[in-house]
Write a structure and sequence with these properties.
The complex is a heterodimer of chains A (448) and B (291). With 448 residues, chain A is of the alpha/beta class. Helix content of chain A is 43%, strand content 15%. Chain A is built from 18 helices and 13 strands. In chain A, strands 6-5-7-8-9-12-13 form a seven-stranded mixed beta sheet, with helices on both faces. Helix content of chain B is 73%, strand content 2%. Chain B has ten helices and two strands; from the N terminus they run ααααββαααααα. A two-stranded antiparallel sheet of chain B has the order 1-2. In chain B, helix 1 runs parallel beside helix 5, helix 2 crosses helix 7 and helix 5 packs across helix 6. In chain B, 54% of the residues are buried. Classes of the chains: A alpha/beta (448), B mainly alpha (291). Chains A and B meet through helix 5, strand 6, helix 11 and helix 12 of A and helix 1, strand 2, helix 8 and helix 9 of B.
């Protein structure tokens, strides 16, 4: 980047000398310690310009419009709560990032929010703007893996840490993995590996399956993984209906599924697409004949579709609020989130919160905002606490090893309160459901 | 998925999709034909109609009143937009017209977002049209069959207005040559205002009757706008029968292609449009030089 030399330490020293002792006394002294630490590292990405003052900037790019707007808003709230907790030194964030006191390395966390509409080009524009205009130290957010993959490439090119939000494609930490990117949520392969034994046990062998698959990296990889893990039990695909992202009307796809003679209907759609397609599948009488399986559960699905349609539906998810009965951090998180936003957090919010908490932890352990040191801290694979138990990053592909939660929709009569949509069937440990780190072609680039 | 039952199902579904597309496109094509303005806010008006219907439905609980109230609201919106903004653009270059209607579209979408948020909303179908109907060869949602009927009736009504009334005569004359209509002493301005109102109503009306089928979001007009443009180009710009034919053809393309390869259904729509533009640039029922 062209601005690295002008913002390097030598330049700032010259500027400081020119500005005189007064300026030094008032402006430079409070962060003398940071300046000292910076001396040993060369400029890279937005470092050290981004953290030269008493703040550190987090660039948040999430879809706030379009088919993925609803999970986008939930994710955003997770980020905002994490930033508030970092700045106040809340007890909850310290459970995940034990070295946190207030802020990150004593700097106040500030942020900017931009709408990506789940479009990769807009996401990259948002990210680039945060980097060039705000000297962002970290970029985070996405609800589509197409965004995640595009931002992964931006992160490696610009040498700025990127933390995907919601991204279920195998590719994000597979063939499109990035040295500067770290994913919290699980993905197609792990979802399939975790949910397949449960649905095979519940529904039996030799089933005919109809898939409804959104036409981009996430949809295709989840579909492939689901086929792979159900094949052994004799499950066969009778139709795979590939539909465009953001389809308003699924009638033609659903008619094919209705006429396919399938026993099981695996719907891979996400966001509003999941809500619309399930409601429409019901209109076409599909849900009465075929068992619905949702391998990658979208936030608010049960609320938006209603318990009548979700009863008995199998779904894999990252977090469900009733995990508060099992994990103290989950309880603290749900309580804290609900107090601020007045609803139970969905998994997007948890992912957002965790991503920034784990970033803060990596920076605190690195004792510097120098990105290569932060990456080293991430790659150390330190075990951290989380609302879903202990987790840690895999250094080979920067994927968090974390459990997959298997849910089954409750009948309306069995719900204990208005948010009690699911039974948690299993918390499947992450390590056992992950492929070998290089199985999806991940080759991490260089740090510098 | 090639089988007779599935083919019949998809063919019927194509009709249902096509009738709705025809209805929305007719508004776009009448406005363009008469006023010469390419209304890029048409998708937003489709969406706004749906939300207006939703508000009336919430207040009254009646689907019929939602359709009526929402449609009337859209006439008013159309007339106001025409009087306040569009009429200043009749003599401006095409680019200005495109930009201003595009801008109106953005403002409408964002206003709705401001008021209702980005979450999807849905109007339930009237109770008598809930559930599924078995047509022998297929199971089809009852309400979608009703939509097919409503769209057909609405198109017939539009046809009667355009071809059997004095207003229709003037509108059709305006499509042919609005300058001459003006010279003949007819108040073209008033007609333009009415036409814009009717066009907005057609879009809004379609938005309401479609709301029980497809959940509404502030962005739901985007896809519709693109599809209606394809319909109008295939059918012939400015031609009402063209919009109907184009709509039905587009519905069938979307539905039948999905039988062979679902991921190509939208691509096929554009492929056919390209083919029409190459072989018959004025569209199937359009007239050369009119647009």
């Amino acid at each position: 980047m062209s601005n690295t030399t002008s913002t390097g330490l030598n330049a700032s020293r010259r500027a400081a000398l020119k500005a005189g002792v007064g300026l030094l006394g008032t402006a430079m002294l409070p962060w003398g310690a940071t300046a000292m630490a910076a001396e040993s590292y060369p400029a890279i990405g937005t470092y050290p310009a981004g953290t030269a003052g008493d703040t550190v900037f987090v660039g948040i790019t999430v879809p706030r419009t379009g088919t993925y707007a609803v999970p986008g808003e939930d994710l955003l709230k997770g980020y905002q709560l994490a930033i508030e907790h970092l700045n106040s030194g809340d007890a909850l964030i310290k459970m995940i990032s034990p070295h946190t006191t207030k802020g990150v390395l004593g700097k106040k966390v500030i942020n900017g929010v931009a709408d990506s509409a789940a479009k990769p080009n807009e996401a990259v524009q948002n990210g680039s703007r945060f980097i060039s205009e705000n000297k962002a130290s970290v970029i985070t957010g996405c609800v589509s893996s197409a965004e995640a993959v595009a931002l992964n490439k931006l992160a490696d090119r610009e040498r700025v840490i990127y933390l995907p939000g919601i991204s279920g494609s195998n590719d994000t930490t597979g063939k499109d993995c990035a040295r500067y990117s770290f994913r919290e949520c699980f993905y197609g392969q792990t979802a399939a590996a975790a949910i397949a034994p449960v649905i095979i046990k519940a529904l039996g062998s030799n089933k005919k399956v109809a898939y409804l698959t959104p036409d981009y990296t996430y949809g295709h990889t989840v579909h492939q993984s689901m086929e792979e893990f159900t094949k052994a039990a004799g499950w066969t695909t009778v139709t795979n209906q590939v539909c465009p992202l953001g389809s308003p009307d699924y009638s033609s796809f659903l008619l094919n599924i209705a006429n396919s003679g399938a026993d099981v209907f695996i719907n891979i759609n996400f966001g509003n697409d999941a809500v619309n397609s399930i409601k429409q599948a019901n209109q076409f009488g599909i849900l009465q004949k075929q068992t619905l399986v949702v391998p990658y559960n979208t936030p608010f699905l049960a609320r938006d579709v209603g318990p009548d349609l979700m009863a008995g539906v199998f779904a894999a998810t990252d977090f469900w609020w009733t995990l508060e009965d099992r994990f103290p951090i989950a309880k603290a998180f749900v309580t804290s989130f609900e107090a601020k936003y007045n609803y139970k957090p969905e998994w997007g919010a948890m992912t957002g919160y965790m991503q920034l908490a784990m970033w803060a932890d990596a920076v605190e352990r690195a004792k510097s905002f120098y990105p290569p040191e932060i990456i080293k801290a991430y790659e150390a694979g330190v075990t951290l606490n989380s609302p879903v138990g202990e987790v840690k990053f895999r250094p080979e592909d920067h994927q968090l090893i974390r459990p997959v939660i298997i849910l089954r929709g409750k009948k309306k009569a069995d719900m204990k309160n208005k948010d009690d949509y699911y039974d948690v069937l299993e918390v499947v440990p992450g390590a056992g459901v992950m492929q070998k780190p290089d199985a999806f072609g991940c080759k991490l680039g260089s740090v510098t | 998925m090639l089988s007779w039952p599935n083919f019949l199902s998809q063919f019927f579904n194509g009709l249902a999709l096509g009738a709705l597309l025809a209805l929305i496109s007719s508004g776009l094509t009448i406005i363009y034909g008469t006023l010469g303005v390419l209304n890029l806010a048409h998708g937003a008006m489709f969406m706004l109609g749906g939300y207006a219907g939703f508000v009336v439905f919430q207040a009254t609980g009646s689907f019929a009143l939602a359709v009526l109230g929402g449609s009337l609201f859209m006439v008013v919106v159309g007339v106001v937009v025409e009087r306040v903004i569009i009429r200043h653009f009749y003599s401006r270059p095409d680019e200005d017209q495109i930009l201003v209607t595009f801008g109106i579209g953005i403002v409408l979408v964002e206003l709705v977002r401001l008021g209702f948020g980005s979450n999807s909303i849905q109007i339930p179908p009237p109770s008598w049209a809930m559930g599924v109907t078995s047509l022998g060869f297929l199971i089809y949602p009852t309400y979608r069959i009703v939509v097919l009927g409503i769209a057909a009736v609405a198109l017939l009504a539009l046809y009667l207005v355009l071809y059997r009334t004095r207003l229709g005569l003037i509108v059709r004359a305006g499509i042919e040559d609005s300058g001459m209509v003006d010279i003949l002493g007819i108040n073209v301005n008033q007609v333009f205002m009415l036409v814009f109102g009717i066009g907005a109503m057609a879009a809004g009306f379609a938005g309401i009757i479609n709301a029980p089928v497809v959940a509404l979001t502030p962005d739901s007009g985007d896809t519709i706008l693109v599809e209606t443009f394809v319909v109008v180009v295939i059918g012939g710009v400015g031609s009402f029968p063209g919009a109907v034919l184009g709509g039905l053809i587009s519905g069938e393309i979307l539905s039948l292609t999905s039988m062979v390869n679902p991921s190509y259904s939208e691509v096929m729509l554009f492929a056919v449009m390209t083919l029409v533009l190459m072989l018959r640039p004025q569209g199937l029922l359009g007239q050369r030089g009119r647009a």
